[in-house]
């Protein structure tokens, strides 16, 4: 289980680092988008803050995953981003769904492997 955790953590971390660094430094050309996804993407770009915020979170969590530091926090911070990645790809670009599934299931797997750290969040205090 430790080896699987290390492999998934590293792969997710490298993927998040690659996508965020290539966004900030314009390392890869922007793929041409069409149809409903193009309309959605125009809305995201028009917000001016949402994509840079998501890419900053991906960068920080990618660093956390690669180094293994602050994993409990990084899993929680990146969870809404992974849900959005999954839903956007499911509804708008199903050809990218396998990568989105890997990101989402990998995040769930890492939360599961660190579950003892999250137990305190589910205790109701009076």
From TrEMBL:
Q: Where does the protein principally reside?
A: membrane
Spell out where the chain crosses the membrane: 7-26, 46-66, 73-91, 97-115
A GO CC term attached to the entry = membrane
Cross-referenced InterPro entries: DoxX
Bilayer disposition of the protein: Multi-pass membrane protein
One Pfam family per UniProt: DoxX
Where in the cell does this protein reside? Membrane
Q: Which UniProt keywords apply?
A: Membrane, Transmembrane, Transmembrane helix
Q: What is this protein called?
A: DoxX protein
Protein source organism: Flavobacterium granuli
Organism placement in taxonomy: Bacteria, Pseudomonadati, Bacteroidota, Flavobacteriia, Flavobacteriales
């Amino acid at each position: 289980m430790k080896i699987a955790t290390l492999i998934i953590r590293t792969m997710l971390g490298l993927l998040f680092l690659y996508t965020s660094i290539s966004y900030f430094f314009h390392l890869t050309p922007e793929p041409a988008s069409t149809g409903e996804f193009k309309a959605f993407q125009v809305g995201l770009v028009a917000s001016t803050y949402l994509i840079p915020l998501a890419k900053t979170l991906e960068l920080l969590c990618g660093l956390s995953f690669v180094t293994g530091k602050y994993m409990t926090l990084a899993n929680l911070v990146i969870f809404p981003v992974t849900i959005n990645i999954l839903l956007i790809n499911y509804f708008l670009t199903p050809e990218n769904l396998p990568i989105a599934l890997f990101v989402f299931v990998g995040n769930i797997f890492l939360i599961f492997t660190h579950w003892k750290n999250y137990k305190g969040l589910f205790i109701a205090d009076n």
